């Protein structure tokens, strides 16, 4: 599975995802870095079939209204330590891979995985 990690999430998450065998990039890896606009991230996600991981609810709006990005993992944990966030995302990774075979929009908070679409 391929993941595009948005600006408000730690770059270390990319390394943790790669350690599991997934492909992952952070917005910092893109030519415009964290200044890359959401529409550009959406286009990249669709073109390369990357799952966007973000805390940014603007991606929810664009997904529901325009079907962009390709797939979305929305993080709704509020502020938590980066190590806790990384573990929260990586621990259920196999489940995410299975869920993303049939679903396109999943939300993750500190207590649940919520399938939206």
Structure description:
The chain has helices at 12-19, 38-48, 58-66, 82-90, 93-99; strands spanning 2-5, 23-26, 51-54, 71-75, 105-108, 113-115. With 117 residues, the chain is α/β, with parallel strands linked by helices. The mean pLDDT is 97. The two termini are 18 Å apart. The longest helix has 11 residues, at 38-48. Strands 2-1-3-4-5-6 form a 6-stranded mixed beta sheet, sandwiched between helices. The chain has one domain (2-115): 3-Layer(aba) Sandwich (Rossmann fold).
**Class derived from helix and strand content:** alpha/beta
Shape descriptor: globular
Oligomeric state: single chain
Percent helix: 25-40%
- What composes the largest sheet? 6 strands, mixed
Structural domains: how many: 1
In N-to-C order, the SSE pattern is: EHEHEHEHHEE
- Radius of gyration over alpha carbons? 13 Å
Total number of strands: 6
Strand content: 15-25%
Overall CATH architecture: 3-Layer(aba) Sandwich
- Span between termini: 18 Å
Find the CATH topology.
Answer: Rossmann fold
Average pLDDT metric: 97
Under CATH at level 1, the class stands as: Alpha Beta
Number of helices: 5
Provide the spatial order of strands within the biggest beta sheet.
2-1-3-4-5-6
Give unreliable regions as ranges.
Answer: none
């Amino acid at each position: 599975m391929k993941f595009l990690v948005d600006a408000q999430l730690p770059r270390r998450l990319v390394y943790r995802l790669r350690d599991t065998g997934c492909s992952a990039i952070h917005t910092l890896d893109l030519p415009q870095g964290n200044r890359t606009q959401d529409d550009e991230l959406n286009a990249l996600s669709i073109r390369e079939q990357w799952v966007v991981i973000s805390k940014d609810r603007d991606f929810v709006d664009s997904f529901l209204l325009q079907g962009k990005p390709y797939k979305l993992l929305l993080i709704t944990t509020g502020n938590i330590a980066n190590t806790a966030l990384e573990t929260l995302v990586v621990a259920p990774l196999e489940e995410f891979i299975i869920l993303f075979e049939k679903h396109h929009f999943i939300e993750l908070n500190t207590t649940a995985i919520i399938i939206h679409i």
